[in-house]
Amino acid sequence: MQVFPDLVVELKALVISLGRVEEFMNEIETQKLSSSDFTTTNIGFTGVNVAWDDDIIRSPNDFVLRNINLKFPLGALSGHKSSGKTLLLLSLLRETSLLCGTIHFPTTKVAYVPQQPWLENSTIRENILFGTNFEEERYWNVVDACGLLKDFENMEQADFTEYNDKDLVLSDEQKARIAFARALYSDAQILLLDDFLSIMDSTTARQIIDNCIKSPFIAGRTVIIVTYYVRDLLDISEYVVILGGGTVIAKGTTGQLLDSEALSNEMFRTNVDAKHDQIDTITQNSLNQTDDKKVWTTHEDPNSTLFSLLDGYKLSQANFIAIYALIASASALFIIFRMACQLLISLRGSKTLFSKLLNAILNAPFVFFDIVPLGKVMNRFSKDLSIIDQVSGLTVHYSPNDEPALSDIKFSVKAEEKIGIVGRTAAGKTTLANSFLRLTEATKGRIVIDGIDISTLSLEDLRSRLTIISQDPILFEGTIRSNLDIREEYTDEDLWESLRRVHLANFEEEHGQVFIIGPITSLDDLVSEGGSNFSRGERQLICFARTLLRRSKTGQIESLMETKKLNNREDGYDDMDEVETEVLDEQIEYN
């Protein structure tokens, strides 16, 4: 009997493994490039439809780039804007599914900087060299241009510091600058840059543009860049492409697009019949689920004694409803009892504390009032009635032998107050956010929320009551609806309202038809694993919408990138009026 549970676990793991192997073996083979796909003079597309994978043929809700006809001149800088940017770049590298058409790409070296920077487990210098020869002058010029010298000064072994995910903690901005330095140092004639500047604060991003992209390092190279900083690059861009709604909506030289005012036309509309869309999606999902699931059943002899006895004790539907109602009623009574106890205990505790303070003040000698200011006495009486969040003497180490990542941090946050915590890369903003969730434990000091030291709470209680929007948010595989409303607590109207507030969806009615403007056109839009089919900024805004739905009393926003694309950057933060909010941000303009 002791072996049976282990056997069940092993069998379950076996079934999962076989399913993964089967899925891999059934994948469509990668298409081989023919000689006609290569050209030594042009980069571009002719009549191309591309998707993330071949399953797109069976999933009409997934994103497809359609009817792409582009020709990028060599030696030009190209800027892409709006949806489908990453898909377009990866299509040049043949990392997507080509549905039709021809992709032209020369047989030369290519350097690619993804939106999510990648580093290998090696020294930082080896990450930059990436197998090329070390040229000292060129190397240090690239490092200086990418603003890495200051980072090296803070590392014990400078650029010989070993990088791995566990020991060396680098911010996403530092990783992006190292990845870009690798591309810049290489001898590749074509650079594909996928919106890596959006990870950085605006000051650093403009320094990278001035010191690198507008420098001799780029001379003679073809650079195709996805970026938000369009205005900063227009003066050197020879060709600009604007994407929207899965196709090219404008292309041409900078002068041509400025004359046609195409650069300001960044929004696209999708005509949606909400009711029809919802029915079709549910039907399709139901069919897919039925096709995908394999149901295993066993048949028992209905005449056996055991099953005959059990058959006589079957409960009717009314019995199940009665049991469920009884459990729900008992749960409601326990919740009311708990709330009443909390209220009575808190009220009694406040009265006791206030009485003790009052007796102490009334019995204090006159010299006490000469020494202690009256304002301090009043603060002592009011402190229990207006509890604040406090960080007191917080010191955090990632490992015992390292220098502290945070040292003696002290500050307080009043109820419904917003504070901003700013600083350059590796200043400790993310470490502070992790300390609130106890992802990193404090070596010294404490964090107090609503008068409770968080070290005394269980991790489940603590993390269920706090909300953080991280710099690199993760979404669950499923739909927009399942990511916003994990517990199915809210109506569709609530979900759309939260998306509207974060500018991911706006509604317009014209001639009796409803238009949805924005990257999300249906609550049943599919979300890939980790949210890989959305940009980093869009993932942050989806998490922001989820935060607005939860209405947590305490929240943290870590460098909400996409708010810089709104008309007013403060729009996103103003939606959290009733939340004690800490904004951990690098997107600050310094004068």
TrEMBL record:
Places the protein is found: Membrane
Gene Ontology CC: membrane
Gene3D superfamilies found in the cross-reference section: ABC transporter type 1, transmembrane domain, P-loop containing nucleotide triphosphate hydrolases
Membrane-crossing residue ranges in chain numbering: 321-345, 357-375
InterPro entries: AAA+_ATPase, ABC1_TM_dom, ABC1_TM_sf, ABC_transporter-like_ATP-bd, ABC_transporter_C-like, P-loop_NTPase
Domain ABC transmembrane type-1: 320-397
Ranges of residues in domain ABC transporter: 38-270
Alphabetical keyword list: ATP-binding, Membrane, Nucleotide-binding, Transmembrane, Transmembrane helix, Transport
Pfam families: ABC_membrane, ABC_tran
SUPFAM superfamilies named in the record: ABC transporter transmembrane region, P-loop containing nucleoside triphosphate hydrolases
Molecular-function annotations in GO: ABC-type transporter activity; ATP binding; ATP hydrolysis activity
The name this protein goes by in its record: 1387_t:CDS:1
Native species: Racocetra fulgida
Taxonomic classification: Eukaryota, Fungi, Fungi incertae sedis, Mucoromycota, Glomeromycotina
